[in-house]
Amino acid sequence: MLARVRNWFDPREVHETGQTPDYRFSLANERTFLAWIRTGLAMIGGGLVVAQFLPPMAVPHMTKILGVALILLGAGCALRAVDHWIRCEIAMRNGRPLPPSRFPAVLALVVTVGSLALLFEVFIDWYRAR
Amino acid sequence: MGSPVEHGAQAERTRLAWRRTVLSGTVCALLLFRLAFERGLDEAGALGLALSLLCWLVLLLVAQRRIRAMDRQDPVAVARTLAVVTITGVLMGLLGVLLILW
């Protein structure tokens, strides 16, 4: 893991293995990275919006908790994006299959559970306001 | 665009992906600015404002450089560029947490 983190900043090691792949594949890998970064930025932005603009909810400090959780999830997305980019780059250079990843599934689950919890919270608010 | 080796406008698509990313980063930066101004620019607010402005400028600069040099193949430079973009994103998130909680 630490060796991979080192590779983010000193990528020469990575570019000495195998052969440079077709530039189209490199650019596609770069676009995938950018798409994940945008996903992360959207979550960070969403967290900032939640913390700034949502009225207080039934559970105390819920907007702050939700905002910070979204921001941390977004930051995790960004870190994972660069890690996945490096792993794909190494795989492509060595002609190996692209690395499998559980991350999209885990992210989908987290977002689903979060939405359900939020829905629950909205119903509590609605019930109390009646 | 007219060059025969260019298949599917790959460079153009990648440039546009960079532009979209800068746009997303700009939205985040604006939200951070608002969060910093809203608390009246105390120590944490001023620090948050300065650092988020820095993050945004770095993202802008790095993306502009990459967009200009899309046709030049330099994988090591690209890897560093992507690492810098990741750091600006994560730093913006951490600044958000700082401004929300402190």
Automatic annotation (TrEMBL), chain A:
Signal peptide: none annotated. Keywords: Cell membrane, Membrane, Transmembrane, Transmembrane helix. It is a multi-pass membrane protein. It is found in: Cell membrane. Residues 24-88 form the DUF202 domain. The chain crosses the membrane at residues 33-53, 65-82, 103-124. It comes from the Bacteria. One of its GO terms (cellular component) is plasma membrane. InterPro entries: DUF202, IM_YidH-like. This is Membrane protein. The lineage of its organism: Bacteria, Bacillati, Actinomycetota, Actinomycetes, Micromonosporales.
From TrEMBL, chain B:
GO terms for cellular component: endomembrane system. This is DUF202 domain-containing protein. The chain crosses the membrane at residues 21-37, 43-62, 82-101. The keyword Transmembrane applies. It is a multi-pass membrane protein. It is found in: Endomembrane system. Coiled coil: none annotated. Residues 8-71 form the DUF202 domain. Keywords: Membrane, Transmembrane, Transmembrane helix. InterPro entries: DUF202. Pfam families: DUF202 (PF02656).
